[in-house]
Design goal:
With 370 residues, this protein is an alpha+beta fold. The protein folds into two domains: 224 residues, no CATH class; 136 residues, no CATH class. 55% of the residues lie in helices and 9% in strands. It contains 17 helices and ten strands. The strands form four sheets. A four-stranded antiparallel beta sheet has the order 1-2-4-3. The longest helix has 18 residues. It starts with a helix and ends with a strand.
Length: 370
């Protein structure tokens, strides 16, 4: 990695064409996937390969609240619409009857898109994929090179006959891959949180919408809409309630970090929600209230995970026994990646340790040890 890469990224953000928000969405999505330390990231021939389906998911999460907003937030200059406006508007309208953004996200991640909506969802996902690959991926980097696809390259996959998409795993497994040079991956890994901060991509995205609205909107209003999370406080409480109901059947509860038997306990996000917006059941563990207050937004060290892995695996096993489908889907996407589920315990612990090490050493979060 060299200074030229950082200089190129700066030029791309500042100088590449700004007729739509596609460029911002592409960079934001790639950075978020890398910052998530996705287990699906692979390395070959000095390039980093990532499932296109993960990027499609990110675009769905970025653009859904914008289309769902009661305030018009422009995403393109002129009188034209985004390439997938018709399909996304239809999905948003359908889910408005079913509970909105959070219900859609829960279906995508866990329950599966309802059968009657799957043909429309496939059309939307394909439209977003095609938009990503023939627009921003093709043109991004034109400020530093005359070549198309000078940074991003992609490889589509043929769909099986009568194929429909019902969840995130199918997006990941059937929508092909894209790749970027290793030097850009390293830059995004190290500086991604700064690039995606309010002074860069997110801010530029909001600034674009304000300018396109002829100053009828404020940066603050647009940022609030763009940053809407599909996981609400209600969803967090529901997951914690479900976890406690399952633990009631077990009888004795032990603090996952100390191993001590506890009568009163909190359900702790293993990797803090403020760091990863992750409400998966594998990421929820019982701990003593005092210990939970000490940990707060710190990241467990790989050493403490190794020391407590038997108890962590015990709790994961209990959840798997009671919520097999949800547990398997969530841990596959977040920790297992391309590793088969059959040997999930070992693979999941190793990836959890890797993710915590990455958050501590590369992203600078505070390490937590007892």
């Amino acid at each position: 990695m060299n200074n030229e890469v950082f200089y190129n990224i700066s030029k791309i953000i500042e100088r590449d064409s700004k007729t739509t928000t596609y460029k911002f969405a592409l960079l934001r999505g790639v950075i978020d996937i890398i910052q998530d330390n996705s287990p699906y990231i692979e390395f070959a021939e000095n390039r980093v390969h990532i499932p296109l389906g993960l990027l499609v998911e990110k675009w769905l999460l970025y653009y859904y609240p914008i289309f769902d907003s009661k305030v018009f937030i422009p995403q393109i200059n002129g009188n034209t619409n985004l390439a997938f406006s018709t399909q996304l508007t239809k999905l948003v309208n359908e889910y408005e009857k079913r509970g909105g953004f959070s219900v859609f996200y829960n279906d995508l991640k866990n329950k599966g898109i309802p059968e009657e909506l799957q043909p429309d969802f496939l059309e939307l996902a394909k439209k977003i994929r095609d938009t990503i690959t023939i627009m921003p991926m093709k043109y991004i980097g034109r400020s530093i090179s005359n070549d198309f696809y000078s940074i991003f390259q992609y490889e589509n996959k043929r769909f099986p006959k009568n194929f429909l998409v019902k969840d995130i795993e199918q997006l990941i497994n059937h929508f092909g891959t894209f790749s970027i040079p290793f030097e850009y991956y390293e830059a995004f890994k190290i500086l991604g949180s700064f690039i995606n901060g309010k002074d860069s991509i997110l801010f530029k995205w909001a600034e674009f919408s304000v300018n396109a609205s002829r100053e009828d909107l404020s940066i603050h209003k647009v940022l609030n809409e763009v940053l809407t999370s599909p996981i609400t406080e209600r969803e967090i409480k529901e997951s914690k309630r479900l976890y406690k109901e399952i633990l009631l059947e077990k009888g004795s509860v032990y603090c996952v970090w100390t191993g001590k038997k506890i009568s009163k306990y909190d359900i702790d996000h293993l990797i803090p929600f403020s760091v990863w917006k992750n409400n998966d059941l594998w990421n929820l563990l019982p701990s003593g209230s005092k210990i939970n207050n000490q940990k707060r937004d710190k990241i467990p060290s790989p050493e403490i995970i190794e020391r407590q892995k038997s108890l962590i695996l015990d709790y994961w096993g209990i959840i798997y026994e009671h919520q097999a489908n949800r547990f398997q889907k969530e841990i596959q996407v977040a920790l297992l990646g391309n590793n088969p589920f059959e040997n999930w315990q070992k693979s999941a612990i190793v990836q959890l340790q890797n993710s915590c090490h990455y958050l501590i050493e590369n992203r600078g979060f505070e390490e937590w040890k007892i």
